[in-house]
Write a structure and sequence with these properties.
The complex is a heterotrimer. Chain A contains 11 helices and 12 strands. Chain A is an alpha/beta fold. Chain A is globular. By secondary structure, chain C is an alpha/beta fold. Classes of the chains: A alpha/beta, B mainly alpha, C alpha/beta.
């Protein structure tokens, strides 16, 4: 698997000339981890009362999430709607300010940075959004859109230099330099997403948060974009936090997978380990619910009862207990913490047990 | 999801605008009328057949004739010339006051919509306060405080229209603020004011331009009302409003000054409304073709 | 063999826009026996939603129009029927559910009232009787507290419950045909599993014929008997579901199946189909798939391919098979 832990000799992504604004020289990576997130939390207050000032409750969107990410690694963050995965991604870039916790990026706590320092750091972390139609400013040309990070950090000295850089980025993502002067509405969804990726790549980031980047695209285009992301990772060593609800897509691109439910991580494991033998009952249900494009497959489906509770009214104890097929009284009372149960695998469950794939993935007997 | 003008690029866009206007009678009439009004306002002093201020007691209070096309008023002044020159005052105030209101109102609205929180609360309460006065009453109060005249009329109308632009800009900004491309710009390192100027403003411009043309129509009416009350353009300089005021004295015997001045107000308001509607069809993102 | 419940014959639906004519549905045909299920699969712009809407004559009439073809439903040609008869059929004999339950449900009426309205439009029933029937139906679709749900407004229910309510509304008059347009696309995976389970069960219990429109091949594999694959307004392949997945014959179907990520795949890279769906206003001549097809020959660029049967109940439109 690509992506080792020692990254001190890693090439700088897209070598850039010295502009007026340079990132501060970074301290040597001590642990080899690019990103260390600890107990990240986001609670949104629910206001009520006559003037809308009183806080009557909390939406616990993200409730103490911790994980690591190494350079050039892809960590997938999966879960259903309302689980807090998008909010987590946004908090890494401080597009949403966390309520508490810490985000250690290359040895520096992002949450302690002031505006200027944060702005310099922003160069190293970028984001690609889900909606290719709303993530590009409709009234800017493709060149201006992609060059925005370059403009902000004053990377290019001349217009010609800027154009050259943007053309190079366009070629990298599989588009043509002729597209510079066009507007977003002239492109298809897949092409717009490529433009968004080119923009994210422009300042030479070490981390890209990809928030459901292919969910809004056609099936045959999804694979093109996922392959592109993988190629860019192989080439430039950029790490991805790949947020998705689609486990099948994640199977291809991720090195490790973190499963979220209602604001908390329930399982964190290496890719093959997770798919072969998920330990947490929610992961097991999630995997068994994915419809397989294979009519021969007879699935022993785990159908969960009820709906996903609202993050405004989170159940006590383990968040999953009301829908869990193996819930016991202790699950209602005490919160299971994310414990390492094996090499590279952590589970948050009082009764985690492996549930090998052949239990629910058995093929019907072949003729 | 994009409006018609946005879907086309460059030349195609200009061609589409032209063909839209040509195809739509009301739009054409509106554009032509506005163009005529602008020409009259700019070239008025050279186009008048008679000196609008020249009094002629012998020919006073006459109906339309070969010499006085719109008749003459109680001072014997040519009504046609006065109406024509009045275009200058009405359009000058009618256009500059909303533009002034727009410049301040749009920024205030953007700040409120973008930052939310206390910025929004303060600016919104302020705008609500201004809006709670009927615009005319507000104009009267300001004119009373500053003394009547050309500049007062502009300030009064601008203050009355400011909160309307602010509200419109605020709600449009709130919608745009939520779009991912704003977050993308933040992630690229842009500061909030640069984002507002580069990203928010162009994307909220459509409805604001429509509002501007419609508020120009309103401003023309308001100016006429202020002048009618004696608080706007002062006589003897002609303004449609003060012509009506003067004409009130002898409405039965000599209706011509008031009638033609009133007709001029109607035409101008109508013209800008038609142009505003045409702009809405072209620019409003909500309208799908 | 009795006549099928639904037989679509050479359906063509064109959109007349200021920039040109879009041939959204260009010669689509298929048939569906009573009680059976058919899936229409394809990516955006393939015409599947337009086809579905035409079945109930719900296409937006400027700019779209059915220019030719027949839609034989239970002996009547829907393409030629008058508006009054169509209204009798809609909601009663043919029902439709859409992707987004929030737009199907009127936010200012309770769920029970809306289902009851469907009842009273087509049956002679008092308000009380209709509401009772609505509550019955809500229970049938698996809602835990049907009386309370009937009294609720759409915004008070979760996505899964809303979609169940929409299904209840569609099935309350026991339609012979249910058209489901991407019914689970907007739902979470675990809720999707619940809804698909429900649809399977209801199909068995109520013997309704189902047309399921989706881009998700996994959903299709689970639920339907026959699959129709559409591309750029045309049917490129039609086959029984097992045959289609086991041995797809049209290059587009093959590419589509390969590019669908599956949980079992161990490959590092996903397979793709190069290129993109052609713009509706600039359709390539000949076979519409030829610009993206690895097997494209000269004739593919000039003439539209014939439909070739495979002797096992399926057919595909491809020169390579002729």
């Amino acid at each position: 698997m690509p992506g080792g832990t020692d990254q001190t000799t890693h090439p700088s992504p897209i070598a850039l000339p010295q502009g007026e604004e340079e990132p501060r020289p970074l301290p040597a990576l001590s642990t080899g981890k690019l990103l260390q997130v600890r107990d990240l939390t986001k609670h949104f207050p629910i206001t009520g009362g006559p003037a809308g000032i009183h806080t009557i409750g909390q939406v616990r969107a993200v409730d103490g999430v911790s994980f690591d990410l190494a350079a050039a690694e892809t960590l997938a963050l999966v879960g259903e709607s309302g689980c807090g995965k998008s909010t987590t991604g946004r908090m890494l870039l401080r597009l949403t300010e966390p309520t508490s916790g810490s985000i250690d990026f290359a040895g520096e706590n992002l949450l302690e940075l002031g505006h200027r320092a944060l702005r310099r750091r922003r160069r190293e972390m970028q984001i690609v959004f889900q909606d290719p139609y709303a993530s590009l400013s409709p009234r800017q040309t493709v060149e201006d859109i992609i060059a925005e990070p370059l403009d902000v950090y004053r990377v290019c000295r001349t217009r010609a230099d800027r154009r050259e850089r943007v053309s190079e980025l366009l070629r990298l993502v599989g588009l043509e330099a002729a597209h510079l002067r066009r507007y977003p509405f002239e492109f298809s969804g897949g092409q717009r997403q490529r433009i968004a990726i080119a923009r994210a790549l422009a300042p030479g980031p070490r981390l890209i948060v990809a928030d459901e980047p292919v969910s809004a695209l056609d099936v045959s285009i999804r694979s093109q974009v996922v392959n592109l992301l993988q190629d860019l990772q192989d080439r430039f060593g950029v790490a991805y936090l790949f947020i998705s609800h689609d486990l099948a897509v994640v199977r291809h691109i991720a090195h490790r997978i973190a499963v979220m439910y209602l604001g908390r991580l329930v399982e964190l494991a290496d890719r093959d380990a997770l798919f072969d033998a998920p330990h947490h009952p929610y992961t097991q249900a999630l995997l068994s619910a994915v419809p397989a494009p294979d009519p021969e497959r007879k699935r022993a489906r785990i159908i969960l009862h009820g709906d996903v509770p609202s993050p405004a009214r989170v159940p006590t104890g383990c968040h999953f207990h009301p829908r869990c097929p193996i819930a016991q009284p202790v699950c209602r009372e005490s919160v299971p913490s994310l414990r390492t149960v094996a090499d590279g695998r952590s589970v948050a469950c009082h009764f985690a047990a492996p549930f090998p794939i052949d239990r629910y993935g058995a093929r019907a007997a072949q003729p | 999801m994009s409006d018609l003008a946005e879907r086309l690029s460059g030349d195609a866009r200009r061609g589409a605008v032209a063909s839209y206007v040509a195809g739509n009678t009301l739009a054409t009439i509106g554009v032509v009328l506005v163009a005529v009004l602008v020409v009259l306002a700019l070239a008025g002093p050279w186009l008048v057949p008679h000196d609008p201020l020249e009094q002629n007691f012998l020919g006073a209070s006459q109906g339309p004739s070969a010499e006085y096309w719109f008749g003459s008023d109680s001072f014997g002044r040519d009504v046609f010339s006065r109406v024509l020159l009045g275009t200058q005052a009405s359009l000058a105030i009618g256009v500059s006051a909303p533009v002034l209101a727009a410049v301040f109102g749009i920024w205030a609205g953007m700040l409120a919509g973008y930052f939310g929180g206390w910025t929004d609360r303060l600016l919104s309460r302020f705008a609500d306060l201004l809006m709670s006065f009927p615009s005319l009453l507000l104009g009267v109060m300001i004119a009373a405080a500053l003394g009547p005249g050309f500049r007062t009329a502009i300030v009064a109308i601008a203050i009355a229209l400011f909160p309307r632009f602010a509200r419109l800009a605020r709600s449009a900004t709130q919608v745009v603020r939520r779009e991912p491309f704003i977050d993308a710009s933040i992630a690229s390192g842009r500061g909030p004011f640069a984002i507002m100027a580069r990203h928010v403003l162009p994307n909220i411009a459509g409805p604001l331009i429509v509002a501007l043309s419609l508020w120009i129509a309103t401003a023309i009416r308001l100016e006429a009302a202020l002048s009618f009350l004696g608080l706007g353009t002062q006589p003897p300089a002609p303004s449609w409003g003060n012509m009506i005021r003067e004409g009130m004295g002898d409405l039965v015997g000599d209706p011509w000054p008031a009638a033609f001045a009133g007709a001029a107000i109607t035409v101008a308001v109508l013209a800008f409304n038609m142009v505003g509607d045409a702009l809405r069809d072209l620019l409003d993102p909500e309208l799908e073709t | 063999m009795s006549a099928p419940l639904l037989a679509v014959d050479d359906l063509r639906v064109h959109l007349f826009t200021p920039r040109g004519v879009v041939r959204a549905v260009d010669g689509v045909g298929f048939s569906l026996p009573a009680g059976a299920s058919l899936g229409i699969v394809g990516e955006s712009g393939c015409g599947k939603t337009m086809t579905a809407l035409s079945l109930m004559r719900l296409i937006p009439s400027p700019p779209a129009r059915i220019v030719s073809g027949r839609i034989m439903f239970d002996g009547e040609d829907i393409a030629a029927l008058g508006e009054a008869r169509l209204r009798e059929l809609r909601g009663d004999a043919i029902a439709m559910i859409y992707q987004d339950p929030m737009t199907t449900l009127n936010p200012v009426f309770t769920v029970g009232e809306q289902i009851a309205e469907a009842v009273r439009l087509h049956r002679d029933a008092s308000r009380a009787a209709a509401l009772a029937r609505a509550t019955e139906m809500l229970e049938l679709v698996g809602i835990a507290d049907p009386a309370r749900c009937a009294r609720s407004y759409p915004h008070q229910l979760s996505g899964g419950m809303r979609q169940r309510a929409v299904i209840a509304m569609a099935l309350v008059c026991h339609p012979k045909l249910l058209i489901a347009d991407e019914p689970t696309t907007a739902l979470d995976v675990t809720i999707q599993a619940q809804i698909l389970d429900l649809m399977r069960r209801l199909q068995g219990e109520m013997a309704t014929a189902i047309i399921l429109i989706t881009h998700d091949l996994g959903v299709i594999a689970d639920l339907v008997d026959t699959v129709v694959v559409m591309y750029a307004g045309k049917v490129v392949e039609r086959a029984p579901v097992r045959r289609l997945f086991a041995t797809p014959r049209h290059p587009y179907t093959q590419g589509l199946l390969r590019s669908v990520p599956s949980l079992d795949a161990r490959e590092h890279r996903m397979r793709t189909i190069e290129g993109a769906v052609p713009s509706a206003l600039a359709m390539p001549p000949g076979c519409r798939f030829h610009p993206r097809c690895a097997l494209a020959r000269d004739i593919c660029r000039r003439e539209e391919p014939p439909v070739v049967g495979d002797g096992a109940g399926g057919e595909a439109a491809c020169w390579a098979l002729a």
